[in-house]
Amino acid sequence: MGARGAGRVERSRRSRAGKGGRRGKGSVSAAKRKTTRGNGRRQRRSAPPQAISPQAEAQLVPLQQHYYEEGREQGRYDGGEALLEQLVPGNLLLPEVSLEEVISAGVQSLLHRCTPLLDAGQVYSRLQAALAAQAPCSVVRLGDGELLALAQNTVYSVEEVAAVGDFLPYAGLNVPDLAARDLLAHAVRSADIVGVPQSRRKHYHPLLHAALRAHQIELKEEQATSSMINYTLHQSGLLSELLRGQSLLLIGNAAPELAPILSARGYSVSGVIAPVNGFADIDRVIGEASGMSYSLALVSAGIPAVVIAWRIATELGKVALDFGHMANFITSGRMTL
Predict the structure, then answer these.
(1) DSSP letters along 115-155, please?
(2) Dihedral, CA atoms, 145, 147, 152, 158, nearest 10 degrees?
(3) Residues 6+ positions from 238 with CB-CB distance below 8 Å
(4) CB of 313 closer than 8 Å to CB of 303
(5) Which of 97, 169, 191, 316 has its CB surrounded by the most CB atoms within 10 Å?
(6) CA dihedral sign, ordered 173, 174, 176, 178
(7) What is the helix, strand, coil percentage profile of the chain, to 5?
(8) CA–CA distances in Å: residue 221 to residues 35, 58, 66, 206
(9) What is the torsion angle, in degrees rounded to the nearest 10, for the CA atoms of residue 185, residue 169, residue 142 and residue 309?
(10) Residue 133: partners with Cβ closer than 8 Å, 6 or more residues away
(11) Between β-strands 319-322 and 296-300, what pairing exists: parallel, antiparallel or unpaired?
């Protein structure tokens, strides 16, 4: 081959190598540009979503119900029947015994490990006695909000509490707040009667003992009641008996609406303190309460209600009940006294 022919071959090789090199380094970029242009065309040409017709929607309902029941059945199996399968010895068959029967038998065998709770009648008697003697008495209640507050950097990290407790700011606690946690723990430890959750949902009863243990809180038998005590007092008819004839101080954001409703029902409302904006407002609330005349304080202020009710009893010598969402239920008409 002549010199000119060899030169042409070499230039052709370099040309092919150069083109291949450019494709090698720029292939992703080129593909991206192509994809972007393609996506752009697709987005511009896409039609708006069509509304589902009533007929099609009606056909979806049985399907949704089917999957709901299927999921419910799977959850029942995983959370109960599967555990029972594992516990029954492999060489035995447990004939025609329901999961409910097994659980009932198991509970009966564990009753000696249960903690007695004060019932509505007993709590009512304690409150009535304190009112008659003009002696201090506080009834506070623990729910998922209070227990998550106690769990900060003890049972859970503050990041975990913030992640699962997105409702906590509404309930009066901005995570992290370890000073509020410690104040809450002191109030629970010192309160006269403490309502504890019986619900087995994750952040209720299953968290209760871990949170109390983390703060070295041991509730005595004469101290513990159900966290639903405000509602059971109402359902038993004892709440109206408790409030009748008392001078009431209403505390919380719903208090201004609650006051005229209770007054119209014949109850004596002597004062209202609102709003209550979290733990930072507690000192102001106690300061206002110290200058008012009343015999019974009803406190509906989220998590700070525990501290407020305890301080009203301890510092001001009054009777205070953590009233909770009952204030909202009454003002919305869902509940009457």
Answers:
(1) PP-B-HHHHHHHHHHHHHHT--EEEEE--HHHHHHHTBTTT
(2) -40
(3) 120, 121, 124
(4) no
(5) 191
(6) negative
(7) 60, 10, 30
(8) 70, 54, 46, 19
(9) 70
(10) none
(11) parallel
pLDDT in tens, 232-267: 999 999 999 999 999 999 999 999 999 999 999 999
β-sheet bridge partners, residue 224: 194
**Number of neighbours of residue 273 by Cβ within 10 angstroms:** 23
Tokens of 48: 């708006």
Provide the β-strand partners of residue 247. 268
* Residues shown for the chain: 337
Amino acid (1-letter code) at residue 273: I
Question: Of the candidates 236, 217, 237, which has an alpha carbon nearest to the alpha carbon of residue 306?
Answer: 217
Best CA proximity match to 136, nearest among 298, 320, 270: 320
Q: Tell me the per-residue pLDDT of 216-238, one tens digit each, with 9 for 90 and over.
A: 999 998 999 999 999 999 999 99
CB of 306 within 8 A of CB of 285? no
Token readout for 149 is 């507050």
Please answer whether residues 283 and 101 qualify as being in contact, where contact means their C-beta atoms are separated by less than 8 angstroms: no
The span from the CA of 38 to the CA of 150, in Å, is 54
DSSP 8-class letter at 79: I
For 323, counting Cβ atoms within 10 Å of its Cβ (0-12 exposed, 13-18 middle, 19+ buried), the class is buried
Q: CB atoms < 10 A from the CB of 185, how many?
A: 21
pTM for the model stands at: 0.79
